[in-house]
Amino acid sequence: MKEGALIYIDHHPLPETISKEEIPGEIIHDHKSSASELTYNFFQSQINADHARTAIYGVIADCLDKTPILQKLLNRWDERTLF
Fold first, then answer.
1. Which of 30, 37, 28 shows the shortest CA–CA distance to 59?
2. I need a surface site. Which of 46, 76, 77, 83 has the fewest CB within 10 A?
């Protein structure tokens, strides 16, 4: 049997019937950032920096593109090509 770790990454409110303490594993949760941004930040040291572009697409789709981290990432590309 293989073992792994649970990493819960989301920006939506948790269901009222569940608290963070009830979720086994690592919780990455922030309603002010998109799940794409949270995921990119979490795995950033393990992936190619060009994958930031993929994260940016998710952030744009969630309409959460005003965070300081995303503004820094947007400086790498012509914003018009992303939007």
1. 37
2. 46
